[in-house]
Amino acid sequence: MSFSDVFPLLVFLGLNMAAASSGAFFMPGQWYEDLKKPRWRPPNWLFAPAWTVLFLMIAVAGWRIFEARGLAAWPELALYLGSLGLNGAWSWLFFGRRRPDQAFFELVALWLSIAAMIVVFLPIDRTAGLLLVPYLCWVTFAGALNFAIWRLNREDILGKTP
């Protein structure tokens, strides 16, 4: 296997690392710790490994679409890039701006973009489409958690935005 064979996969991994990096710039911190959270919230340590696995799966899905169709897959890859952008924006809205309300609506757009990717990826490469299903499930759960945190802290959040 040559570098030119591996390079596209490295590009997709890099794109996903860029989206994931928003979590390093906008970290939970004390503000998040002080929020009321539902009892069913997973422990904080679970989020990093879960997202690591998901970002690897997302990268492989995008790479497989590129490998299957090359630049002819530009509409699907544009959707893919838009979805990564939405993913990266969530941390900024939730943790950076401290606006779970705005982050929830942004998460709805992310969910729709993931569902659309699954629909358009499946006919091109079934594995690529299926690799996104856990991502959709996790974002569904994250949306429920985001909504619950917003609702539990609604009055406090709207009065204390930076």
Write the layout of secondary structure elements.
Layout: H1 3-20, H2 22-25, H3 29-34, H4 47-69, H5 74-96, H6 100-121, H7 126-131, H8 133-152, H9 154-159
Note poorly predicted spans. Answer: none
Number of H- or I-type helical stretches = 9
- Would you list the SSEs in sequence order as H and E? HHHHHHHHH
Strand-residue proportion: under 5%
User: What's the domain count?
Assistant: 1
CATH architecture: Up-down Bundle
Q: Sketch the major β-sheet.
A: none
The global form is: elongated
Distance between the termini: 50 Å
How large, in whole angstroms, is the Cα Rg?
17 Å
**CATH superfamily name?**
TspO/MBR protein
Query: What helical percentage do the residues reach?
Result: over 70%
CATH classification class: Mainly Alpha
Task: Examine the coordinates and then state which fold CATH places here, giving the name of the CATH topology.
Answer: Ferritin
Find the count of extended strands (DSSP E, 2+ residues): 0
Mean pLDDT, rounded to whole units? 93
